[in-house]
């Protein structure tokens, strides 16, 4: 349920930004009460749903509900891509305008917008990070790969690639943890060293 709330909030945010890109700027100049309310409510809703996503992602990872974790990764990241592409386009327009008006301010605005986009992106990657932890617990990935995939989820653009990789790996991962091959090898060596 929470993953779908995140999808709805992301798509509503994208719908609010879209008119500016197709030339319908009048919606921003004289907004209707509904649009004004959405501009006020959506940031708060995004914050609340993001906190709920943290809790939900941890619960799904702990419960081992792999199928619903894969669905959450795909659904939230797909909606996140639409939202973040429009937000990035909007950010480029704002940064470019500010840079032309006053270059030092434009640089600061650009840095601020990159940080803001990253902060907005992280909640869309939480299910993916939970998936990485789940894969690690299942023994499907080693520590190095898990670290790389988790870091990829925290960087714009690479988060999409990491989400696809994690969703695919979770889809084919075994449902029970696999034994550590090193422990099996050590047990085998101990058996061979027994005196007869």
Automatic annotation (TrEMBL):
InterPro entries noted in UniProt: DUF6652
Transmembrane segments: 33-57, 69-95, 107-133, 145-167
UniProtKB keywords: Membrane, Transmembrane, Transmembrane helix
Protein's UniProt name: Uncharacterized protein
């Amino acid at each position: 349920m929470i993953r779908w709330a995140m999808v709805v909030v992301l798509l509503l945010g994208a719908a609010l930004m879209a008119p500016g890109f197709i030339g319908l700027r009048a919606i921003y100049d004289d907004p209707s009460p509904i649009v004004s309310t959405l501009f006020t409510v959506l940031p708060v809703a995004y914050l609340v749903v993001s906190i709920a996503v943290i809790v939900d992602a941890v619960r799904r990872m702990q419960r081992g509900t792999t199928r619903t974790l894969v669905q959450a990764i795909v659904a939230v990241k797909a909606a996140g891509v639409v939202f973040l592409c429009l937000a990035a386009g909007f950010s480029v327009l704002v940064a470019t305008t500010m840079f032309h008006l006053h270059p030092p301010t434009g640089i600061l605005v650009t840095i601020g917008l990159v940080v803001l986009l990253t902060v907005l992106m992280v909640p869309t990657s939480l299910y993916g990070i939970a998936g990485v932890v789940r894969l690690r617990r299942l023994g499907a990935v080693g520590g190095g790969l898990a670290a790389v995939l988790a870091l990829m989820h925290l960087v714009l653009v690479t988060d999409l690639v990491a989400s696809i990789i994690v969703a695919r790996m979770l889809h084919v991962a075994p449902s029970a943890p696999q034994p550590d091959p090193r422990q099996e090898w050590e047990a085998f060596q101990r058996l061979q060293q027994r005196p007869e």
